[in-house]
Amino acid sequence: MSYGRVFRNEDVDATHEHTFYQCEGVFVSETATLADMLGTLQAFFEAYYGQTLKIKTQPAYFPFVEPGLEFAIEKPAALGGQSGEWLEMLGCGMIHPNVLTAAGIDPTKYQGFAWGGGIERLVMLKYGIEDLRYFESGKLAFLRKFVS
After folding, report:
1. Cβ(65)–Cβ(5) under 8 Å?
2. Which one of 37, 86, 114, 121 is least enclosed by Cβ atoms within 10 Å?
3. CATH number of the domain to which 65 belongs
4. Does 133 have pLDDT greater than 90?
5. How far from each other are the two terminal CA atoms of the chain, in whole angstroms?
6. Digit-coded pLDDT (tens) for 52-62
7. What range defines the domain where residue 49 resides?
8. Based on the structure, what is the number of domains in the chain?
9. Cα separation of 84 and 86, whole Å?
10. What is the Cα–Cα distance from 146 to 126, expressed in whole angstroms?
11. Please, which residues have CB within 8 angstroms of residue 68's CB and are 6 or more apart in sequence?
């Protein structure tokens, strides 16, 4: 796993920011499957939000994975979610064999999955922060909410 600051050409609004922190993960083994990836991600979000969650995916293009998926969770009740409300949480997919080869890993023996998503969005949803732009606002009133 790694994290860092990233830039994406986005229009800025309450739920999208052009510059943010992203956490990425990679898992490679002789037996990694798409089902393993989905189960791992679902288990993480259920532990993070402290409740059982429904998940869904839809096809998406990411240059280093095939297939690529957008991973969404049903909005947690703890966040005011109601049945049928979905939140896209991250992009993910099975690592393309060319990427494994470039890393010196034999793609005929190993496969893997990768994921990446915004850290601010995780925090925003868990703590009921209504506007992503607050993280970069420099407003002390916002920061004081997190001091005990």
Report:
1. no
2. 86
3. 3.30.930.10
4. no
5. 30
6. 889 999 999 99
7. 2-144
8. 1
9. 6
10. 13
11. 59, 60, 61, 62, 91, 92, 93
